[in-house]
Design brief:
alpha+beta; Arc Repressor Mutant, subunit A; Alpha-Beta Plaits; 4 strands; Tscrpt_reg_AsnC-like; transcription; sequence-specific DNA binding; Tscrpt_reg_AsnC/Lrp_C
Length: about 170
């Protein structure tokens, strides 16, 4: 009998210093290297080398600024689930590409399950989300069903699963 094929790449091995660096950078990606080094208990040159290694190994993939959508007039967030008609499955990549270009789309998830997509949108108000759904989803003959849920609170945080390994 043959061995089963591996399910994906092996996890990257991280030590306690790598984990501490990741945690601090997740809290504040703009922390100066000297402060980061002090916080994790290594020299600045060691810290810089560790951060470079984390980037090269694909652990850190980008640095970003979190923008307050309300400050830009987007006071409402919603999650829109989308089901594509069975005969239109061949259009899923095209639909995904089109949705990602819409300025309201903050995140787009391609799902396995009852729904095909989950779209996180940031909009001005309920009329704006209504127009987004009508113009971008309901008007598309490939879309069988949409369901819109309003977001009352949205928090970004290091997921519980990542916290356990860090």
């Amino acid at each position: 009998m043959s061995e089963p094929a591996p399910s994906g790449p092996a996890p990257i091995v991280l030590d306690a210093i790598d984990r501490a660096i990741i945690t601090r950078l997740h809290e504040n990606a703009r922390i100066p290297n000297i402060d980061l080094a002090r916080a994790v208990g290594v020299s600045p040159s060691t810290c810089l080398a560790r951060v470079r290694s984390l980037r090269e190994r694909g652990v850190i993939i980008r640095y970003t600024a979190e923008i307050n959508p309300a400050a830009l007039g987007f006071t409402l967030q919603a999650l829109v689930s989308v089901r594509i008609r069975p005969g239109a499955r061949h259009l899923m990549e095209q639909i995904s590409d089109e949705l990602r270009t819409q300025p309201e789309v903050a995140q787009l998830f391609f799902l396995g399950g009852a729904e095909d997509f989950l779209i996180h949108v940031r909009v001005r108000d309920s009329e704006h989300v209504r127009q987004f759904v009508l113009n971008n989803l309901s008007a598309n003959p490939a879309v069988a069903l949409t369901e819109t849920n309003l977001v009352f609170e949205h928090h970004t945080a290091l997921s519980a699963g990542l916290r356990t390994v860090l």
